[in-house]
């Protein structure tokens, strides 16, 4: 992703909304080179939305794409000046350092019965047969739920000893 001067735009929000379900199919934040990668379901149609403060929002419907063919996006500066901005919602995914925080309400319907059902609906989140966890294709060492450690990598599961029952 570039601006009109061919400079990369880092930390822009990228969202792909499935046009059939109207749910977020994937979410990413551009890296230092302005690049992003989305894991989308083949054959589905998505509305690709890209935004960054100071630039006009980019929207494009994509239906036939190849994961090997990059989509070049150029954002134009937004000349509109606002007197005051009030944020009324939270982003569904935020990144701080190497930590991703998901607002699960944005991805779930409330009918999920197990935590695994919730995790599998989060964009880029994968759980393999052995219980290994990956996000955006990278191995995750720790999963926290409501600020408490839920899972510490597969090499630590199952624990050798369990805490005493109270």
Order of helices and strands: EEEEEEEEHEEEEE
| Helical fraction | under 10%
Shape: globular
Distance between the termini: 54 Å
Radius of gyration: 19 Å
Query: What assembly state would you assign to the polypeptide chains in this entry?
Result: single chain
Q: How many β-strands, per DSSP? A: 13
> Strands of the largest sheet, in order across it?
3-2-4-5
Word description of this protein:
There is one protein chain. This protein is mainly beta. It is built from 1 helix and 13 strands.
Kindly summarize this structure in a few lines.
By secondary structure, the protein is mainly beta.
Would you spell out the secondary-structure blueprint of this structure?
Elements: E1 2-3, E2 13-18, E3 24-29, E4 46-51, E5 58-62, E6 74-75, E7 93-96, E8 99-102, H1 115-121, E9 125-127, E10 133-135, E11 138-139, E12 142-145, E13 148-152
Parallel strand pairs: 1-6
Antiparallel strand pairs: 2-3, 2-4, 4-5, 7-8, 9-10, 10-11, 12-13
Key phrases:
4% helix, mainly beta, 166 residues, three-stranded antiparallel β-sheet, four-stranded antiparallel β-sheet
